[in-house]
Amino acid sequence: MKVLDQLYEGKAKRVFKTDDDQLYMVEYKDDATAFNGEKKGTIAHKGVLNNKISGWFFNRLTDQGVKNHLVQVVDDDHQLVKRVEIIKLEVIVRNIIAGSMAKRLGLEEGLVAKTPIIEFSYKDDDLGDPLINRYHAQALGVATKEEIDTIISEAFKINDLLSQWLDEANLILVDFKLEFGRTPDGTIILADEISPDTCRLWDKDTREKLDKDRFRRDLGGVAEAYVEVWRRLQALDQ
Ligand code: UDP
């Protein structure tokens, strides 16, 4: 596999073309941003850890029949993925109220949702990823009704699987963000990453935050938290 030109550089990853036009190489970076890029920093070894953590989740999801873009984790900070057209939606799943939802609705962080919640944000950095609903997405041609039905059922299924695995790792899956892509034949598959950058994870006993909120809120011990999540996931394979 030959890696060719860089196609795109995002906040936490770089994407490269390869000599197979159906495959891209993704490089995970240590850079971290929050609040729509206002806060910037680096987290030691984050690229390696997120590559491994996300690879772990995607491989397990593959085993459970959840179609996704991962072909293989290639080395410490690279993974080979299928080329997809990213759907311009951030799909947020919430089990416990936190972050922007707590703020928006004046709710206390930690309130347990009676049922899981799905939210959509329109992926547009200039607009700050505004909250929209499925009808906006359909009406504006971001995705079709059938595609959104698929995205919702996949997101709930992924939530059930991740919650179960993380529970075994003594972690609570508070909320997380997913992105989906369209393959050239029009199939909707899970893309992007699942990591402490994109999930809120709380220790089940102490409720200690083990995710990017440590960076967002200057809580310290950011890199250590990512290491701890990876340690607990690996322990599940023993
Ligand atoms: N999230 C993400 N990328 C974003 C926005 C949110 O990965 O651009 C994740 C975030 O880490 C959390 C969940 O989605 O696990 C819900 O985030 P929320 O809407 O509460 O926004 P935030 O508080 O992060 O601004």
From TrEMBL:
Pathway: Purine metabolism; IMP biosynthesis via de novo pathway; 5-amino-1-(5-phospho-D-ribosyl)imidazole-4-carboxamide from 5-amino-1-(5-phospho-D-ribosyl)imidazole-4-carboxylate: step 1/2. Signal peptide: none annotated. Belongs to the SAICAR synthetase family. It comes from the Bacteria. It catalyses: 5-amino-1-(5-phospho-D-ribosyl)imidazole-4-carboxylate + L-aspartate + ATP = (2S)-2-[5-amino-1-(5-phospho-beta-D-ribosyl)imidazole-4-carboxamido]succinate + ADP + phosphate + 2 H(+). Keywords: ATP-binding, Ligase, Nucleotide-binding, Purine biosynthesis. The keyword ATP-binding applies. Its EC number is 6.3.2.6. PANTHER family: MULTIFUNCTIONAL PROTEIN ADE2, SI:DKEY-6E2.2. NCBIfam families: purC. It comes from Peptococcus simiae. This is Phosphoribosylaminoimidazole-succinocarboxamide synthase. It is an enzyme of class 6 (ligase). Residues 6-232 form the SAICAR synthetase/ADE2 N-terminal domain. SUPFAM superfamilies: SAICAR synthase-like. One of its GO terms (molecular function) is phosphoribosylaminoimidazolesuccinocarboxamide synthase activity.
